[in-house]
Write a structure and sequence with these properties.
Number of helices: 19
Largest sheet: 8 strands, mixed
Radius of gyration: 22 Å
Shape: globular
Length: 469
């Protein structure tokens, strides 16, 4: 079912409102330079629309789900962190890096979801500072510079949350223990050798942060210098290390623990803030989702918690080589290939994913045996609803499928963006792996009649109106 705002948008464009139809292309004229290079040629012709209560309610659900994920070592393993890590495929060296940092994971991440026509369903939950797509809120900001779209937004009382604004506020707040300044110096730090592939995205992020008043330096671990415990990058003292390296990056690099030690020690001595700490990787792993979903875990959750899990998380199970998944699960997977997808415990960006509906029976059987060695989850396929999109050149209505995401910071919901593919493509939606993938922003409309959590946007005035930087 198409929401009323989308329906009205499509109807107007088809009825001859050329300025509205071309709004996305006109918005590109306002794109900052690095952002244009990063994604200017990969835009969906229109934004997506969703109700405030639906997206805010899901964001509340996601925050609760993170609390459950963080509690899994206690609830399922009696507080034995080593057993927990083994169950979800975290190697001992990575587990040691994670457990070095006290407390739990910060609420900072991005949830990727499909809308199945009834609600948003969780595919992946990337709880970590190494987030992609944070700059895509610039699409929504620039669309509001186009008169035709601005008029449409005003008519429907559309709003959005600018992810960059939320991240800038988060980094300023995180820096408070080490600097009295409202403009901390942030170092965007990747693993050694990790920057070149993603540099266009990093430069776009840096550009956005600069526009929000934050100085962001870019570098790799080996470029960070320590003088008496005070860190610097490219000769400039650093207040916050925005971590874009993982425990896996560290253990995979010869001498990795030694090279990152000055950063960890400066954080522990209160001379710099590491955002986020390595604790994020306690719950980054998709094995957490399998533990939540597994019927054998039900006794550890209340009836309300089970209802939450079932409302947002598709059926998910772990496939490992320790025999715990059992013969029945493998047979079920063999018999239901068309409805299942395999995902590595620690993968991201679509790497290693095997959709059952795109493989032959033989390939699927072989994959089921192979992935058990490496640690995978099997998840029931979520069929995304079709999103109508008008091709501005042909004026024909095409059907697309979209990944809806929700960014979260300690303040809660921090905006969204879309990755989409033509419905006919049939591939996993991933910007990096498929040339046909496109991106766009979202706008939210008042839908208090839906009821439930987050259903009164007027109570959150900052979110109920278009937000501009």
């Amino acid at each position: 079912m198409i929401d009323p705002v989308t329906s009205n948008y499509i109807d107007r464009c088809l009825s001859g409102d050329q300025d509205l139809l071309d709004a996305m292309e006109h918005a590109r004229a306002h794109f900052p330079r690095a952002f244009e290079v990063s994604c200017g040629r990969r835009l969906l012709p229109r934004p997506m629309f969703i109700g405030w209560s639906e997206i805010l309610g899901r964001a509340d659900d996601l925050a609760e789900l993170l609390d459950l994920m963080a509690a899994l070592p206690e609830r399922l393993f009696g507080g034995d962190f080593a057993r927990y890590c083994k169950a979800i495929g975290i190697d001992p060296r990575s587990a040691s890096l994670i457990s070095r940092f006290p407390g739990g994971p910060q609420l900072y991440g991005r949830a990727d979801m499909y809308h199945d026509g009834a609600s948003l369903k969780l595919l992946e939950y990337n709880i970590d500072s190494g987030l992609g797509g944070t700059d895509r809120a610039e699409i929504s900001r620039m669309l509001l510079e186009v008169d035709a779209f601005r008029a449409f937004a005003d008519e429907h009382n559309l709003g959005y949350v600018h992810t960059g604004e939320r991240i800038a506020r988060t980094l300023r707040k995180a820096a408070e223990p080490v600097t009295a300044s409202d403009t901390p110096v942030v170092a965007f730090v990747e693993a050694d050798g990790g920057l070149p592939e993603y540099m266009h995205l990093v430069l776009s992020f840096q550009e956005m942060m600069r526009g929000l008043g934050l100085d962001v330096l870019i570098g790799e671990i080996s470029q960070v210098r320590s003088d008496g415990g005070r860190l610097s990058l490219h000769g400039k003292p650093v207040d916050v290390v925005l971590r874009y390296f993982s425990p896996e990056d560290i253990v995979a690099s010869p001498g990795g623990e030694e090279s990152v030690e000055p950063i960890f020690r400066a954080h522990e001595e209160g001379k710099v803030v590491l955002w986020t700490s390595m604790r994020s990787w306690q719950v980054f792993n998709k094995g957490c989702l399998a533990l939540l979903s597994d019927i054998r875990s039900r006794a550890a959750f209340s009836s309300r918690e089970i209802e939450l899990i079932d409302s947002i998380l598709p059926w998910t199970r772990a496939l490992t080589d320790d025999g715990s998944d059992g013969k029945d699960l493998i047979e079920y997977c063999r018999d239901n290939r068309q409805d299942l997808i395999l995902k590595p415990f620690g993968g991201y960006g679509g790497a290693g994913i095997i959709p059952g509906w795109e493989t032959s029976d033989r390939e699927w059987r072989d994959a089921l045996q192979t992935v058990r060695i490496h640690g995978y989850v099997v998840q029931r396929k979520v069929v995304p609803r079709h999103e109508p999109v008008i091709d501005p050149d042909t004026r024909t209505v095409e059907t697309w499928c979209a990944v809806w995401d929700a960014f979260l910071t300690p303040e809660g919901y921090a905006g969204s963006h879309i990755r989409a593919l033509p419905a006919s493509a049939g591939a996993v939606i991933n910007m990096g792996a498929h040339g046909a993938a496109r991106t766009t922003g979202i706008f939210c409309y008042p839908d208090a009649a839906r009821g439930g959590k987050g259903s009164d946007p007027s109570a959150r005035s900052e979110w109920a109106r278009p937000v501009r930087t």
